[in-house]
Design brief:
heterodimer; A: about 120 residues; mainly beta; 11 strands; B: about 120 residues; six-stranded mixed beta sheet
Chain lengths: ~120, ~120
């Protein structure tokens, strides 16, 4: 398996523009997570899905952020309109359900977003 | 609510010296504990995990961590570090939901810098 695939790896955009980040989880994984990493706040969970259904979106900063998972092999995180404070590295991760609770997250390489 | 505290944001150490990266957590219920490592420009990778049983867990590259319930700690140690261990290390906790999935709470990370 190629692992969790994220695109784009780098995105530079101007304030007010729409940004779409994409993620392809590992085949067979039931859970998908979106995290944001910044120097100030560290790694924050934004939202996670189970079987394509959003379970917890309490970490989504505000209405400018939205995430979808139309099928088991694809998810998007959209920011509209983008602001400079959204600049961060956005990680997608996936995991397989486990009755033991030993869910191990596999992370993608991240999408580095810079909003000017 | 759960939380994870990594007491040191940066740890510089010389090659072949021992190192300890500290992690404390707070939770009123049973937890699962993890250490993830992030090499430059990459996503996080699982280093080791504690689920149950022996309180001392080891990774394949010489790291170990000990779960101490009374101290609510899960410190990471290595007796002799290499230059290649230079990375950021994240402690994470997941509440034991009795088999169902929950999300991970990450600490803010500790940057280990190994100098020759």
């Amino acid at each position: 398996d190629a692992g969790v695939i994220q695109s784009p790896r780098h995105e530079v955009t101007e304030m007010g523009q729409e940004v779409t980040l994409r993620c392809k989880p590992i085949s067979g994984h039931d859970y998908l997570f979106w995290y944001r990493q910044t120097m100030m706040r560290g790694l924050e969970l934004l939202i996670y899905f189970n079987n394509n259904v959003p379970i917890d979106d309490s970490g989504m900063p505000e209405d400018r952020f939205s995430a979808k998972m139309p099928n088991a092999s694809f998810s998007t995180l959209k920011i509209q309109p983008s602001e400079p404070r959204d600049s961060a590295v956005y990680f997608c991760a996936s995991s397989r359900d486990s009755h033991s609770g030993a869910n191990v997250l596999t992370f993608g390489a991240g999408s580095r977003l810079t909003v000017l | 609510a759960q939380s994870v505290t990594q007491l040191d944001s940066q740890v510089p150490v010389f090659e072949e010296a021992p190192v300890e990266l500290r992690c404390n957590y707070s939770s009123s219920v049973s937890v699962y504990l993890f250490w993830y490592v992030q090499y430059p420009n990459q996503g996080l990778q699982l280093l080791l995990k504690y689920l149950s049983g022996s309180t001392l867990v080891e990774s394949i590259n010489g790291f170990e961590a000990e779960f101490n319930k009374s101290q609510t700690s899960f410190h990471l140690r290595k007796p002799s570090v290499h230059i290649s261990d230079t990375a950021e290390y994240f402690c994470a906790v997941r509440k034991d939901y009795g088999g169902s999935q929950g999300n991970l709470i990450f600490g803010k990370g500790t940057k280990l810098s190994v100098k020759p």
